[in-house]
Specification:
The complex is a heterodimer of chains A (about 290) and B (about 325). With about 290 residues, chain A is mostly helical. Helices cover about 75% and strands about 5% of the residues of chain A. Chain A has a single domain, classed as ABC transporter involved in vitamin B12 uptake, BtuC (Orthogonal Bundle). Chain A has a two-stranded antiparallel sheet. In chain A, a hairpin with a 2-residue loop joins β1 (about 130-135) and β2 (about 140). The two termini of chain A are about 35 Å apart. In chain B, about 80% of the residues lie in helices and about 0% in strands.
């Protein structure tokens, strides 16, 4: 019973971060139609920037304010100059999806290689709020609670932004049908670039939050990308709330499988992915 | 086709140059230095992989990233059976084992949208790696296996044999009604289904066929390795390199992947052995992005365009 409780709570804590990463990918893939395999690399860069800034005396939670906007700009520019060009050159959406996915693999190699050249391959970590808190008999580090709270706060804030603002409405319209949204007067190039930028910013911020509670290493990105892809499929393509909820579900499942047999966590995600695609390809919140 | 209907002149013109090249390559171990033979081994390896990738992904537009999985299955077949069975049988078993897995994976996933198929196949490589690691460490308590070594000449001639079989199979496939079905699936799958093609069956069978060659190459290349573990056998780069080589060379004709593989393997060799060793992945990524941005039809497409333009200019000055 205690074990079950600690698995569920631990799963929800990491799930908050998975949600943030997956909402980012949901914007990039669900709306901008780029299955960005380099998504996790933004996360890794965010984590290492935080590590570096912390090393120079900046509070890790403050670095979120630096990492987020920086990643946003990088993502925005990347979409504007690379993926948009691919979109204009490809004959149909299917070809655009495959080509942009292959290009994002290219970015994965580029970013990871640069990161390895700068930071090496050894795992890094630092101590921050590492006191333990007891919840219902299980011990959790303070930093995990803070990270999860931050992740949930950012996720909720973004949801409100989507639901309440004009730009948010444009993004939701583009998620339904980008070309028709364009005909209705939404500046589609701008909106899709914004989505890609927001996605990158969320990955970067998630990286900052991960760095305060877990060891970080330069090859960590792909694992998070794969989790995000499963979550986005689980939550339903283009559904931001779906990704938010899906992140928690996968967090709990992942923590459970890891507690039972660490060697099989990828296998578990893969099986979830297969079952989802076969039984409910629309996801839990898809229409 | 009876002998009298073959247009011998045309055949000689079309097949003559490739035949002469093939014969020159076939006798390479007799006159070439050892290093050249090794280099050509890699040329053949990647050419077979990228052509068999193109058979399926090039014509249907479904991007498969499972090349490393089928190649790895071949490597593991060699590790498991290499000591008990003759090499020739192991090659066939490896190819068939890969085809069987490809058939199952294809039957499950080829009804899905292309992008899910791509992710699914990429996941397959990671899945096999993790499950075999788990199996070796937790169940059998060993890690890694040894493979019986073969001489460089044996490896070279086996690869040459697989290369010829792959080429013949590809050409026959392209000319058959299945080739036409594949091409029409690539152009418009719905229209293909409406005109009476069993699209799922054509896709699954072609996918399985392409995996045969990948598995067979895996068996042969394993005999160069001596020691294999899942990390060596299921290296995701083996999924990307053949795809990049085929796109880089151009998928409009059979020569594209060959040109792409030879050029790219050479670049790879130069980069990984030279001073730029640490930048290899960086350059690989940059070439991948640049190819998709600027060379969507590959080098052969670019060459054709230039040729047309030159031809056009000539016509203009003449007229």
């Amino acid at each position: 019973m205690d074990l079950a409780f600690s698995i569920i709570l631990g799963g929800l804590l990491i799930g908050g971060i998975y949600s943030l990463v997956s909402m980012g990918l949901s914007l990039q893939y669900g709306v901008a139609k780029v299955l960005n395999i380099a998504h996790g690399e933004f996360l890794m860069v965010g984590a290492f920037l935080t590590f570096w800034l912390h090393h120079n005396g900046v509070d890790p939670l403050v670095t979120v304010l630096i990492v987020g906007p920086l990643m946003f700009v990088i993502g925005f520019v990347l979409y504007r100059f690379v993926f948009n060009t691919i979109r204009r050159k490809t004959p149909n959406p299917g070809v655009f999806e495959s080509n942009s996915m292959l290009a994002s693999f290219g970015f994965l190699f580029i970013v990871q290689n640069i990161a390895v050249l700068i930071w090496g391959t050894t795992p890094q970590s630092y101590a921050y709020l590492s006191g333990a808190v007891s919840i219902g008999g299980s011990l959790f580090n303070e930093n995990r609670l803070v990270a999860a709270a931050f992740a949930i706060a950012i996720g909720t804030a973004f949801y409100l932004f989507l639901a309440r603002t004009r730009t948010g409405k444009a993004i939701r319209a583009a998620a339904q049908d980008a070309s028709i949204a364009g005909l209705m007067g939404v500046n589609i190039n701008n909106t899709l670039s914004l989505c890609f930028g927001f996605g990158a910013a969320m990955a970067g911020v998630a990286g900052s939050l991960i760095s305060i509670c877990y060891p970080i290493y330069t090859t960590m990105g792909l694992g998070y990308t794969l989790i995000a892809i499963v979550v986005v499929t689980l939550g339903g393509l283009g559904s931001i709330p779906g990704s938010f909820i899906g992140g928690f579900i996968l967090g709990v499942i992942g923590t459970g499988v890891t507690a039972w047999e660490p060697g099989l966590s990828v296998a578990a995600y893969y099986i979830i992915f297969i079952l989802l695609l076969l039984l409910r390809p629309k996801g839990i919140m898809g229409k | 086709m009876s002998l009298s209907t073959i247009n011998w002149k045309q055949l000689a013109r079309k097949a003559g140059v490739p035949m002469v090249l093939l014969i020159a390559v076939a006798f390479l171990p007799l006159y070439g230095p050892g290093y050249t033979v090794t280099m050509f081994t890699y040329f053949l390896e990647y050419t077979i992989l990228s052509i068999s990738w193109m058979i399926f992904s090039g014509s249907t537009g479904y991007i498969s990233l499972a090349t490393a999985a089928f190649y790895g299955i071949g490597i593991y077949t060699a590790a498991l059976l290499g000591e008990t069975l003759p090499l020739f049988i192991v090659v066939i078993v490896g190819g068939l084992a890969s085809a069987a897995i490809a058939f199952v994976v294809g039957a499950i996933t080829l009804r899905l949208r292309g992008i899910y198929f791509a992710m699914f196949t990429f996941g397959l490589v990671l899945l096999l790696k993790e499950v075999i690691y788990f199996w070796e460490i937790d169940i059998t308590g060993t890690r890694g296996r040894f493979v019986v070594l073969q001489s460089n000449e044996t490896i070279f001639y086996y690869l040459l044999g697989i290369f010829i079989v792959t080429m013949v199979a590809t050409i026959l496939l392209k000319r058959s009604k299945y080739g036409l079905a594949l091409a029409s699936i690539g152009l418009n799958e719905e229209a293909a289904a409406h005109s009476g093609i069993n699209v799922t069956m054509v896709k699954v069978l072609t996918y399985a066929l392409s995996a045969v060659f990948m598995g067979a190459v895996g068996v042969i290349m394993a005999t160069k390795l001596t020691y294999v573990d899942p990390g060596v056998a299921f290296n995701p780069m083996m999924s990307f390199s053949p795809a990049l080589m085929a796109i880089f060379g151009g998928m409009g004709s059979l020569y594209g992947p060959i040109v792409g593989s030879v050029l790219f393997t050479y670049i790879q060799e130069l980069l990984t052995t030279g001073v730029l060793k640490n930048y290899y992945m960086l350059i690989f990524g940059a070439i991948l992005v640049a190819t998709i941005l600027y060379l969507p039809n590959g080098i052969m497409g670019l060459a054709q365009n230039l040729w047309k333009r030159i031809g056009g200019m000539r016509a203009h000055t003449r007229g």
